[in-house]
Structure formats: structure tokens, C-alpha cells
Write a structure and sequence with these properties.
The structure is a homotetramer of 359-residue chains.
Chain A lengths: L11 E6 L3 H13 L3 E7 L3 H11 L3 E3 L2 H6 L5 E4 L6 H11 L2 E4 L7 H11 L6 E3 L7 H11 L6 E9 L6 H6 L3 H17 L3 E9 L14 E8 L4 E7 L7 E8 L2 E5 L7 E4 L12 H4 L1 H17 L7 H20 L3 E2 L20
Parallel strand pairs in A: 1-2, 1-4, 2-3, 4-5, 5-6, 7-10
Antiparallel strand pairs in A: 7-11, 8-9, 8-14, 9-10, 11-12
Helix pairs in contact in A: 4-5, 5-11, 8-11
């Protein structure tokens, strides 16, 4: 489906695979909020769900087998929002069918699969964008720009806080890859992007404090990760499955001449004052907090398809974030710092002498 | 100098040893702001400085040798604000002279000296209070109370941020014990106090980004420390010598059912809106931010002396905080986690298997 | 141009009249950000300006005479962003040509003209929407919903603050209708909408403090208006042409059981911390602060045209806001309270006795 | 009781008349928190109450008749915290007995009485301070200083918000003088002090929305007052007996080059995050919000007595604030603007033509 054969004023025809919470949101955004796109097909093995979404959005092409969706010649691009452990197969199928892809994060359920996907996509003619939607949040976009402009000097420290309102059900935890893979990958991606530097070494702590049953799956509900970047910069990340007060994503970057904070407890500029209600906004989840970001990442994808260029977030970003998550997991298990490159603990024997002259 | 021989309505007569920035502030507070106290003597080897303070505050007893101050029978209590490496000797002298003491932190310049002081004070009849003034800051006091009341459930994670407006001169850095001993001890004390639990293991990262000359003394200007508490709770601390926007002390405690944040960028409830000025308060330093706390810790000391009881902060708190600081330093140097109890790195051999069922 | 003759999947074809700052923004929004719309023509007597906008946005239909734009059969809807004193004539021409209209506020430069326009539009078959974009700002939308849901009880007091970063040039002031007509109409519209009640009486104070030259045109640069609503509720509005710290729009509604505040000094959730820069966002103007609102009001207009219904803001809202503005002006000139209905000062003779039992 | 006959190191001996909520707080502050003062006597016709306060604070001198307290030679200064309609008589008695006075606001229950008190105090040798404690609140003090330094240019507009958590009982309302006299006098005093200018004309609106029974006493529960200052500056004040979310005092001053905001919803720098609790501080009342200010105004009083000088707040400030409150009341009743000097409504006949060139 080459750009040359299509009328540039025609909208991009898109199919969505997977219509759970996330896929349903993408389908909705494609049905009005995203300029230049037209939702033409949806697929999901859950027949009732896919039929409901199709009806609501007036989409004629409704499939329980995603391969039927891919078989349609008029579908130019696909949004993959199916479970993480099915993505490798789907990406391969989309590639074979010549469809452009916007794929939810993580790109795969584990690091080896993610690396296979990256290899598969090398030299591909189709466009592949990964769903790190925080990079499209207006606040993060502005902070990134200010940092790149040097407004706070050279960035030397980053702090990343992620907290869900409530933890996911035990059933989800088992297949999620754990707190660091499932949730912290967003923070690891932000860390790389905002600092403009790769993470070299991690050290992780964690425990189960609210949901002891998570331990059955080897998972934790509070985690903390120290990050050492190439060049010596430092990061600290903490993540909690239950905040007790709503969904809360905050980031702070300290530079050699100032700092930037992103995110706070108000969704917008409304403050409600009541004796018996939180004065800050109760933000229930990522769909609420990042509603704009989800719309804007889709818009970016469609704009790249229509006007050319490369998506701001590619498969390699997904691999990098998973590498950090896997190293954090290894550190939690070994009780030692872990090298991201080797994925091995750094023991007393091979611990490098500390160099203080990093600048 | 027993309580029985003095009129309980008489003010406590206090002498101040050391009239640098900190000692001068204590002397000033004792000359009016603290009820029930009377400043009667000041001592400092810097004759011009001690004379100036004596004149300003109308204190007749002005000495260059602190031993002369201690020789006065009418001096019941002493504030020690002399350099850290002179404190061991002074505490011994005060003890011999039967004077009550409020001693600036850290209790000594290194851990062995601090432990000697603690031993020296065992069973002493005089009262000894350590100057962790943050424990008297009204905001920290309220947060501590709310946590103890169980308002946020069981505390499981703490984050502590400390940033100075500007780094100290190189001359100070050499004798300071380094970033963790000189500055982070405050945070380590807050961590123990707010979490109600001891720190068992630390892992530290750091570097020199703004003041490369600090490396000459083996010191850093940005540091980050992971804390593991007894019982499994987790902490992350970051510290920077130069913020680029003023003095900034913030703490956050996450519990199993909510969170508490302490500290922000406004000194009081004034917001100045100008095109060319910071909209938040520029807080220059600890003397400005903790002005109330310094007054209130002195008031607590005087109240304990007049009404009986034990100070809220004792020498053992100073030893504990120094143990954590020393372990952080050892972690920075070894590149490995360090046990606070043994002060030794935890290597691959002796790293305990991670237990996830900590709750 | 009836709905029945057009394919409902076709975008609405829109022309923009007037390509100054405001019109250029509308044209830009119609070229991508608004789903279901297609910008097909622009008109402005300033040939260079209209040609530039046409080129930038790839619009073929470029006219210096708006009548040529209206003569195009394929133009279904028009955005009127020409100067206020030309709008009456343009609305008449659009009406004659059967075009739907989104018209910038104020609907006319004075109250009599606005009333003539309202009369003209009575029973019209085309859709007319007025550009009170604040009603589409997500924060105001949420506050309005919360108030209607009774979250703060019955609304009894409203406070509305409007401040520009810098005052307009003297040339603009002369034809603007003055501070209350040009700027406060937005607040008067918000007051009616949020309180759900009409303003019956106003009392105004004002002066020229920063731009004495405004007095040449009988205008002021700071104004304050007391509002009395039908049913007894109360409002206070203040407006300043120069804030000294950026564009600042804030509103607060107090109910019988709580309050809601809308608007503050941050554009989004980024806080920049620097010694020498404002810590709050410097918001330059309404185009920056209400960027979303301008997009969403256009989207609302297009959605109404495609799906049917009546716009949320009609010509009568423009007339009501102008009535309040004109009464405020009359109060400023007479030094007395003024009835909105009669537009006459309330003198000692006819001042009603105060009834306190308003509830 | 001349300064020459007393030892300047002796504390000032103070008696407190009236031990209701306010007087009990003053007595408590004099028993420790205020340096240089000694509480020696308390008086109140309520024998049980005065005995309880005396016992708690260890004060031997306990009286039901304040004249017995005044008869003690050793009492140098008196704090008057008895009901407003008894203050004129007490001030006369204190004057006759040669006692210094700190008198609660308002200085009297109505304007004529206040003017008689002012006349009575003309040329008096004793010191008289009025209890406008907000002038001693650290935030207001800092804002006042910044304005005087010209940081925001020339102040041209002031906005003052006062809200109680809950309205007073009906019994109190009858003798309170009404919302403007009882509560808004604080704001009128702040307005004069912060703007550095006298109020010339007021216009008031009000109603009973929450407590309809207040109308029995001719009182309101929400009020709004427009202020015109000498020289043309403008003010808007709103006051509510019930906020629905706690005690809330906020002030904003706009200058020709910037603005200052004082007061917000947090008592200190603690933010509690919980699903089911207000995220801002619930501040119950003035005793909580202005705890520091009450201590500091007493300290100021004692310092003036010990070191000489004139209190920052005198009887004339009380008279001015009452004049504005009485004019606001007259405006509410007449429905017209009222001149503060003449206390008469400004009718159509004598309304001055508006001059716009005020600068």
C-alpha cells in the first residue's frame, strides 16, 4: 500500500485489534477525535465485546479473528491492543500483510521476545510506533523541550513516581511480567527520554505490603529502583500498586541550574473545596490522566503516515525499557546492583571503583 | 546544680559556645523568643565575633575560652554550636561541670567519636539534647502525629529530598565528613523518626556535577541513597548541593492507605506574582526555612529542664543517623549495598535471597 | 443547504471571514484539529494576510471580499472573526446566503446592534453559535457540571478575575467598546452560566492607573463590578488590562455547602524552578490559555451541524452579556448602581428597601 | 507606674479581663509563649470559667469583678477580651487606674462608642494597642513589606475574602453588630494597611442563604462590599459565615507591576492525600489559623512596654475600620453607595461625575 497510489486527502483507514479498555479507547479516538483517520475494522476473540464496540462506533468490519481484519486490502494501518504475549505473532502477521502498526507497550511480554520483534522489524517498509503515550502528554512534551533547550542546565538527577489507585486483580498479575515490566517501563522510557542518556546499572528494592497474594506470582506491590546513567547522572524511581488517593504520576528533573517538575494531583485547573471530599482531584487511572496523550499519540501516528517521517517512539525504545525492567527484576532477586547491558549482578569482585570525577 | 535548690519561677541561665551563624541564631533566640530562658554567657575563640554578639544581645559574660564559661556556677545549661570535631571534648567538659547540653548535629565528626560520646553520656545526670531541629518544625510534627495515628495506614515507603541553594566553599567540604554526614544525617534522622523503624541496609550513588573541585576531598555534590528498613519498608533519598532555585527540603511518606507530603516551595502563604521574579519563595537556607524549628527546639530543651522529662532527641539518635551516613559513604565507595550494622558491603556471596513476603 | 442532500460522512465545508489573530487560529484548527470539518475558503480585505493564511493551510479559496466567499455554494458554514462593527452586516449576508455561523464575541459593537442581530436571527433555519469559548474550556465545563449536580449546594456567590498580561494599543481601545464590553463580557457570560441566574443590577468602579492615555477614549484599565442576581445571589468581578505577571483568568463559586475554584497560574502540570524565572507559568494571552477551548468550540459547532441539535451558546447569550457590560459602563459614569433591565441608575428615590430574607 | 521605677529585666505583669475563647488564648500565651511577660491575674464574671483558667495556668489572682484586678498595684498591663459592649467602660476604668491596654477588636460595639473611646484616649499616658492580630501574621507582615518596598509597583486593587467554617449561634448574632462590624472589620483594617490609603466610599450587597434566622436580627450570612479609596484605588471584599470547607482568609493586592497573594488553604506545608479526606487542611477557625499572630501581637505589646515606642495598631485604626463597616451596613440598607466620611447614601442628585483620570 504505497503512498503514491492513494489520494493524500483521503483519511487513513485503520483497524484496531483488541477491544479491551485500551483498544476501545483507541477505537473511540479514531472515530472522531483524530483528524485524517477513519476506523474501518475491529477484531477481538471476545465476540460480544467486539460487536458492542463495532455497534457503538458504527464500524461495519467486525471480526473475532484478527487475520480476517489483516486480509482486508483497504486497511492501511493497525492498532495492536491485544495481550502482551500475543503481540509478537501479530506484529509478524501485520508485517507480512504490509500494514503500518501502532502497538501498545510493552512490545512483548519478555525481553527475548522484544528483541526478536526488533530484529523482525529491521529494514521493514511499514511504519511501527510504540505506545509510550506519556511522551505525547502536553506537560511532558513541554518539560522535554525545556530540558533540551538547556533551561535547567545539564540534567543530572531524575526522580520518577508512579502510583496506581488500586492494584490489578491477581489474575492479571501472573501474566503481567511484574511491577517493573508492566508499569515501570513507562518510567524507564521517560527516564531515557528526559535525561537523554541510557541507563547502565540498576539497584532495586521491593515488597508486598498491601496485596500479600502478589507474592504467589513473585511480584511486589511497592518497588524502588536506583538508576545510574551513562555519564554518571542518577535516578530514583518508586512505584506503588495502591496509593490510597488515586492515580498519581510525577516526575522531577534536577539540572546543574534549576529543576522541572511534571505532574501533580489536579487533572485540570479545578479545585473543589468541601468538608468531606478530597480537595485535589481524584484521578482514577491512566485513561483519565492521559486522555489527551492517547489522542495525541494516535494523531502523531496518523500524521506520520500521511505526511511521512518516522514515529517519535520506535521498537528500540520498547526494547531499552524492557532491558531496564528486567535488570531491576534481577536486582530485586539477587539483592545486588545489576548491569543493564549484561543483565548480571555486580558483585564485590567486579564492582568498579567509584569514580567521583564524573563531570 | 539540682532542681531542688532553684526557684522554679526563675529562668534557666544558658551559655552558648560557638557564635558562628548557628550559634548566633541560638543566642538570639535565647534573648527573647524562648520563654523561661536567660542568656548569660557566650564563648568563641574568635574574639571580635564573640564580643559583637555579646554587645548586640546585652550579654555581660563574653569569653574566648569556653572553659571559663563552664566555670561559672550560675550557668545551668549550655548550647554547643562549635565545629563538629571539637564537640567530643566540649561534651566531656560540660559533663564534668554538670551542665545540661543542647548540642548541634552531628554529635561528632565521625562515627567512632559519636559512639564514644554516647558511651560517655550513659547514666549521666545532666540532660543532653541533640539539634535535629527538623523534628520541631510544625509541619514535620504534624505529619509525624498523623502517621502515628494511622491516618495513612502502615508507612511503607519514604522519599526525602534535600537541596541547598548553593554548595559550601571548598574549605568547609574537607572537614565536613562529606554530603551524607554533613547534610543527609537530617534526612536519615527524619527517615527513622517518621517510619518508626531502623534502617538496615543502604545503597548509594553520587557524583560531582556542579563543583568538580569537591572530588579533591572525595566528596560529591549530588547523591542518592536507597534505604531498606527493618521489616521491609523502603526509602529513597536524594541530596544536591546546588538546586539552582533555593533551599528545598521535602519529604513524602506513603502508607498502605494514603500518603503525606511535607514541605514545598513557599516559606509561608505569600505568593508574589511578577514577570521577572520566582513565583515561589526563594528560601535561601536552613536558617530561613527552619527559623521556627530552631526556636522550638530550644524551647523544648528549656521546658524539659524546667518541668522535667527527657528530650525528644538524644545522643543515640545522632549515632544512628551517623551509622546510616557512614554506610552510605561505604556504599558509594564500594559500588555495593552496605549493611548498616556491620558497615560492610553485601557481596554476591552473602547477599540474602530476596523475600517477597515482607508484610 | 439541507442535511438531507449531503452525505453524512462528508466533512462540513467551512469558510473563515477575517484572518487576524483570532481568525487565523480558527482557520488553523479547521485544518486538522477539528474532526469532520474541511476548511475551503478564507476572506479578509488585507490581501497579503489572507493570501499568507491560504498558502500556509493549503486553501485554494482566497478572497478579499467576503461576499465572494458566501457566493460559493459548497461553503456550508462560516466562522466570522472580522471586527465587531462589521459583524451585523456579515451576519445578515450569511443569513441571506443560508450559511451556518460561528461568530466571535461580542456579537456586535454595541447593545442596540446586538439586539438587532438577535431579532434578525429569530426563526432562522441556519445554526448560529456565539464564540464564548470559555464555556468549552475543560476546567469550566467540569466546574459547571459539578455545580449543576449540587456538589457545593446552591450557588450563592461568584468571584471572577480577568487580567491581561499587557493592555491593548490605544488604537484598539477606541473602537473596543471599553474594558467591560471588550473583555468583561466573557466574565458576565460565565457568571450567568455558572450561577444559572440572570444579573439584575450592577455597580462599577474603575480607573486608569497604568495607561492614563486610555482616558482619552473614556476607558479604564482596572475595573470592579458588583453583581446582584435574580433571587439574591451576589457576584464580584475585577478586571485589569495589565497584570505584571501574565494572562490570568480565575473564577470561584461559593455555594451553601462548599466552593469551586477554576483557573490558576499554571497552564499545565509543569513547574519550572529557577532562581531567575517565574515558578508559575507565564501565560501570554487567551490564545495560549484557551487553546483547547477554541478547538473544542469549533468541534462543538461542527458536531451540531453534522448530528443536529442547538449550539450551547446562542445569540441571546451575547445580548445578555452586552446588557450587563453596558449597565456596568453606565454605573461607572453615574457613580450609582444601575438596573440591567432598564439600563438606568438606581437613585436614592427609587432604591428599593433592602430585603434580607432572600433565601 | 512609670518605667523609671521598675527593673527593666523584670517581666511585665499582666492581667486578663474576660476568659472566653479569646481571653483564654491570651492568658495561655502570656504563660510561657510571650517573652518578658508574666500573667498575674484573670477576671471574668463567670466564676467557674475564671477559676478553671486560673487553676490551669497557675495564676493566683482570680476575680469575678474586673475592678478588683485593676485595684492591684502590681498589675502593669491589661488584656481586655470581654464582650464588645462592655469595653468602653473597662477602657475608662483602666485609664483611671493607669494600666496599659491590649484591647480586642472591635474597640466598641458601635461607631459612636468607638469615637468616644478614641477621644477618651487622646493624650493618655498609658499605652493602648488594638487587637487586629492579622497585622502580626508573618505572611501579612511580609506582604506589607513587599508592597511598601514597591515590589509590585503602586497598589491599585485589593481583594479580600473572609469565610468562617460555620456561622455563629443566633444568640451571638444579635449583639455582634452584624457581619460587617463583627467580621469584616478585620478586612477593612487590612485594606487600609496594605493599600496605605483610606476608604472613601462603599457599596454593599448581602443576603441570608444558609441561616435564614439571621434576618431576625437584620443580619446577613453572605456579604460583598465594593471599596473606593482616596486617590482612586479599588477594592472588593466578600464575606461568608459558612464556607462548607473550613476557615478561609485570603487577600490579593494588584499593583501597577505585579500582584501579591496572601493566604491559602494549607495551614502549614503538610499535604495529606487520602481518598476520603480533604487534601487541603481543614482549618477550623481563627484561633488555629492565626495562632502565631495572636502570640506575636502580645509579644509586640510587651516589647513596646519594655522598650518604649507606640503600638503598630492604635484606637484610631479601630475607629476607621468601624466607620467603613457602618457605611457598608448603611449601603446594604439603602441599596446605594455610601460615603464613609458622612455615612450618608450617595444619591443620583449628589453623585459626583466619574473622573477617569485618577492616576
Amino acid at each position: 500500500m504505497s503512498e503514491t497510489t492513494r489520494d493524500k486527502h483521503e483519511p487513513i483507514r485503520v483497524g484496531v485489534i483488541g477491544v479491551g479498555r485500551m483498544g476501545a479507547r483507541h477505537a473511540q479516538n479514531l472515530s472522531g477525535a483524530v483528524a485524517g483517520a477513519k476506523l474501518v475494522a475491529v477484531a477481538d476473540p471476545d465476540e460480544a465485546a467486539v460487536r458492542r464496540v463495532g455497534d457503538e462506533l458504527g464500524v461495519a468490519g467486525v471480526y473475532t479473528d484478527y487475520r480476517e481484519l489483516l486480509a482486508r486490502d483497504d486497511v492501511e494501518a493497525v492498532v495492536i491492543a491485544a495481550p502482551a504475549d500475543t503481540r509478537e505473532e501479530m506484529i509478524a502477521a501485520c508485517l507480512a500483510a504490509g500494514k503500518h502498526m501502532l502497538c501498545e507497550k510493552p512490545v512483548a511480554h519478555d525481553l527475548p521476545a522484544a528483541r526478536r520483534v526488533a530484529k523482525m522489524l529491521e529494514g521493514a517498509e511499514v511504519t511501527f510506533q510504540l505506545g509510550f503515550m506519556r511522551r505525547f502528554d502536553p506537560a511532558y512534551v513541554r518539560a522535554h523541550r525545556l530540558i533540551r533547550e538547556g533551561v535547567i542546565g545539564r540534567p543530572v538527577f531524575i526522580r520518577l513516581v508512579s502510583r496506581d489507585a488500586e492494584g490489578p486483580p491477581l489474575g492479571f498479575v501472573g501474566g503481567s511480567g511484574g511491577l517493573f515490566v508492566d508499569s515501570s517501563v513507562h518510567d524507564f522510557d521517560l527516564a531515557r527520554w528526559l535525561m537523554g542518556s541510557e541507563v547502565e546499572r540498576v539497584y532495586a528494592l521491593g515488597g508486598t505490603f498491601v496485596y500479600p497474594e502478589y507474592a504467589e506470582h513473585g511480584d511486589i506491590d511497592v518497588g524502588a529502583v536506583s538508576l545510574r546513567f551513562a555519564g554518571g547522572a542518577i535516578g530514583l524511581h518508586d512505584n506503588a500498586r495502591k496509593s490510597g488517593y488515586g492515580y498519581d504520576i510525577r516526575t522531577e528533573v534536577l539540572g546543574t541550574d534549576g529543576a522541572i517538575q511534571i505532574g501533580y494531583l489536579n487533572q485540570d485547573s479545578v479545585v473543589l473545596l468541601k468538608n468531606d471530599r478530597p480537595g485535589y482531584d481524584y484521578v482514577p487511572d491512566f485513561l483519565a490522566r492521559f486522555a489527551d496523550a492517547y489522542r495525541l499519540e494516535l494523531q502523531h501516528f496518523i500524521d506520520v503516515l500521511r505526511k511521512g517521517g518516522t514515529p517519535a517512539v520506535g521498537v528500540e525504545d520498547g526494547v531499552r525499557a524492557l532491558e531496564i525492567a528486567a535488570a531491576a527484576r534481577a536486582s530485586l532477586e539477587s539483592g545486588l546492583p545489576v548491569s543493564v547491558a549484561s543483565q548480571h549482578p555486580v558483585g564485590a569482585a567486579d564492582a568498579e571503583p567509584k569514580e567521583l570525577e564524573v563531570s
